[in-house]
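Whether sequence alone determines local backbone shape is best considered at the level of individual chains. When preparing material for the folding task, we compiled for one chain both its residues and its backbone structure tokens. No coordinates are needed to read the tokens, only the vocabulary itself. For completeness, the protein is quoted in full, as a sequence line and a line of structure tokens:
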Amino acid sequence: MPTGSGSSALASAAAVDAAHAQVAAAGLRCATRVQATATKLTATSARYGVNEARSADEFRALVC
């Protein structure tokens, strides 16, 4: 083993560990954002269904 290569290996290992931590944090942020978007879409879908039912009732009242 060349002189000084031990500290180089430690620096490389630390860099890899830091990169893994950054990737894990990015994955967590992404998962949180996807979950928030899914929650908003679910709420929007429910409101859309209520609006469609109300519109159908109003249309039926005009036609019948």
